[in-house]
Specification:
two-stranded antiparallel sheet
Length: 265
Amino acid sequence: MLRILITNDDGIDALGIKKLAEAALTLEGAEIYVVAPAEEKSGVGHGLTYRSALSPEERDFYGMPVKAWAINGNPADCVKAAYHLLFEENKKPDIVLSGINVGTNLGRDIYYSGTCSGAREAVILGMPGVALSYDNWEDQENYGDVAEMIRPLIQSFCEKAKKDTLPPEVFWNVNIPHLPLKEVKGILPASLSLHHYEDRYHQEAEGYFLTRTYPEGIPLAEPQDYHLLKHGYIAVTPVHIDATDKSLLREMEEWPLMKAWGERG
């Protein structure tokens, strides 16, 4: 039995999470659980709810053979609440899939994204986590061939999860181009593209709204997620949840202030 927990940040009624559940249901022996926000929670990052109560509400999910709950919280809340409240100790999920997000989560988006935070929270709790995002922001009702594209990928992740061969402190950030399946060039490992857009604010009657500007030309100079995606590849990034710069820690031991305090001991 393969126990899969699915969440997202677009809300339990979003089309993307339906597509993800459909793809997961094709896996042999899969037992699917959906725990997702009751409403859209895009851009909430890794926010947790602790000043108000969470109330999981069991829901029908498009008539599919899955168990589903909507939660009045964020994606990280959904994974944490599912882990602690909805699963018995010996029946925890084998893997958490988060998505499929409307639009990409590339580069520094991983810090803002609720989709990525759902996968990150899984890893914090000791479960493998995979975040999936689709480059259809300008065509949000069209999920094209995305289910066919991700099926072999999630199958691979699920098989590794069952064998316990995935690294314990890494979640996987997957970005999928909005192309017909036959035009996708392949699946490649990718580093984060941290500087591929610039933030801008524009003023309207209500106040200031955050927007982004992107470069005109997109050369495939480095194996970064943004560049690979725009050239027709599915980009897969392993994201370590320990952000400590360990090489800098060793350098800091030689800082005069650090040495002076160390010598006092």
